[in-house]
Design goal:
Blueprint: E1 2-6, E2 13-17, E3 20-23, E4 40-43, E5 52-57, E6 60-65, E7 76-78, E8 92-94, E9 97-99, E10 109-113, E11 116-120, E12 127-129, E13 137-139, E14 149-150
Antiparallel strand pairs: 1-2, 3-4, 5-6, 7-9, 8-13, 10-11, 10-14, 12-13
Domain Ig-like: 75-151
Organism: Mytilus coruscus (Sea mussel)
InterPro entries: Ig-like_dom, Ig-like_dom_sf, Ig-like_fold
Length: 151
């Protein structure tokens, strides 16, 4: 669709039309909890001032725009390096600080042993913390089996 409008008596034309939108890739693959960026080019006259996406899954459409669920800034997460050892049976506390302007809803830790990643959630037996109010991980009654790299 293309529109033309007379701008003044000199018969100059201003081209006004729908924006031309190009999405660079046609297929994006991501693992759960990993960011996906859709590379897009928008050419428009006049310039575009509002952009939104429509996501359709099983004939159900969701509109995604800045500030909508699914579009979030990344929280700033810091886990101070701690190479510590504790006695068997003692608690071990791994500190995590999260700063975000948006509400944090899901917190989990990952432990790597021999290249195998396991996730630790709030309801994982033998731990406490791991929630929006207290993202730190406390391992209750530590044993040698709790050794590993935690992130």
């Amino acid at each position: 669709m293309h529109f033309e409008e007379k701008a003044n008596k000199a018969d100059s034309l201003i081209n006004i039309g729908l924006p031309m939108v190009t999405v660079e890739g046609k297929k994006y693959i991501s693992m759960y909890n990993h960011e996906v960026t859709l590379q897009t080019v928008v050419i428009a006259n006049p310039p575009v001032t509002f952009v939104y996406w429509e996501k359709v899954v099983n004939k159900r459409k969701t509109v995604i725009n800045n500030g909508a669920v699914g579009i979030q800034e990344k929280p700033n997460v810091s886990v101070p390096f701690a190479n510590s050892s504790v006695n068997c049976g003692d608690e071990s506390n791994l500190v995590c600080n999260v700063d975000s302007s948006l509400p944090i809803t899901i917190v989990h830790w990952e432990r790597v042993i021999n290249g195998v990643i396991s996730r630790i959630y709030q309801d994982t037996i033998g731990s406490k913390g791991i929630n929006a109010d207290n993202p730190s991980l406390t391992i209750l009654y530590s044993t040698n089996a709790d050794s590993g790299l935690y992130t």
